[in-house]
Write a structure and sequence with these properties.
Layout lengths: L35 E6 L14 H7 L15 H4 L2 E6 L7 H16 L4 E6 L5 H12 L2 E6 L19 H7 L3 E11 L6 H10 L2 E4 H7 L1 H12 L3 E7 L21 H9 L5 E8 L10 H21 L2
Parallel strand pairs: 1-2, 1-3, 3-8, 4-5, 4-7, 5-6, 7-8
Helix pairs in contact: 1-10, 3-4, 4-5, 7-8, 8-9, 9-10
Bound molecules: manganese (II) ion (2 copies).
The site of one manganese (II) ion has 7 residues, from loops.
Length: about 325
């Protein structure tokens, strides 16, 4: 086996030059096969408040130029132990949600056909549904940790079943999730009513609120999650609004009282060694971002997710 083709060498090509692939990684068409592919889904037709996440993939890539190849927190050089590539964007219909979901599911299935694991950058959270459909095709119902200010298990908006507030109710209904091991992390903010929480519990979700992360601390939260996940195939879905607006202002439905980027990264690092089969980072809306705060947070979260998947491949 040949060594993986790595990112552009920053001692030869400055970080501010060259194509904006994620972390300056090679494109999918430059390699024979990939262990992990970063793929963008520039889609935001499912949003309920501020639009603009269709520009998220390009913004996260631009904010990823400073990522370096060695991860000291996890003691891993993810691009050396796995072939990681940028697979570009999935071109979706911006006018018709159901056909967009079909396109995402088909493209994700094709990319994953030879065992490539996907890190998807969004895009609004609607896209988690077709990504989970593709993951479940391959692995059966998957465990999930869902990092988000919101539950995203509502039923419909304006009578529409496929929106960024409903993907996980649909996923449970479609049997895509292993309901013995699904949890939200970072939940906070006002709800429509207590019924929202009752429904969510009925679907099988555990909840680690944003206040729990603060009061219990990262280690206790991680221990609880690991306990529940065990060796199951697990999908990690990260809505960037899990972070406090101070750490991620550039998003569609911000809520006060969120995690710091340090807390989120530490919880993710605590999941090292689990069987991570896929992940997404969604809801980055650059028009509301300042100084790349949100883009940089999303790029680092994506890098940590790649590191977790590279470690999964080891064993
Ligand atoms: Mn959210
Ligand atoms: Mn969400």
């Amino acid at each position: 086996m040949t060594a993986p083709l790595g990112p552009l060498d920053s001692s030869l090509t400055p970080r501010f030059a060259g194509p904006a692939t994620f972390a300056r990684l090679p494109r999918l068409d430059q390699v024979e096969s990939a262990d992990i592919a970063v793929v963008g889904v520039p889609f935001d037709t499912g949003v309920s408040y501020r639009p603009g996440a269709r520009f998220g993939p390009a913004h996260i890539r631009e904010s990823s130029r400073l990522l370096r190849p060695y991860h000291p927190g996890l003691d891993v050089a993810p691009f050396e132990i796995a072939q990681v590539v940028d697979a570009g964007d999935i071109a979706v219909n911006p006018y018709h949600i159901p056909s967009a979901l079909e396109t995402v599911q088909e493209a994700a299935s094709d990319l994953a056909a030879s065992g490539t694991r996907l890190l998807t950058i969004g895009g609004d959270h609607t896209i988690a549904l077709p990504l989970l459909r593709a993951a479940a095709e391959r692995h059966g119902p998957v465990a999930m940790v869902h990092f988000d200010a919101h539950l995203d298990t509502w039923d419909t908006y304006f009578g529409e079943p496929y929106t960024h507030g409903t993907p996980f109710r649909r996923a449970v209904e479609e049997g895509l999730l292993d309901t013995e091991a699904i949890s939200h992390v970072g939940t906070r903010g006002p709800l429509y009513g207590k019924r929202d929480l009752e429904d969510d519990r009925r679907f099988g979700f555990g909840i680690v609120t944003s206040a729990d992360v603060y009061r219990k601390g990262v280690d206790e939260v991680v221990a609880g999650l690991r306990d529940r996940l065990g060796a199951r195939p697990v999908y990690l879905s990260i809505d960037i609004d899990v972070l406090d607006p101070a750490h991620a202002p550039g998003t569609g439905t911000p809520e006060a009282g969120g995690l710091t980027s340090r807390e989120l990264l530490e919880v993710l690092r605590g999941l090292a060694g689990l069987n991570v089969v896929g992940a997404d980072v969604v809801e980055v809306a650059p028009a509301y971002d300042h100084a790349e705060i949100t883009g940089i947070a999303a790029a680092h979260v994506a890098y940590d997710l790649i590191a977790l998947m590279a470690l999964t491949g080891q064993g």
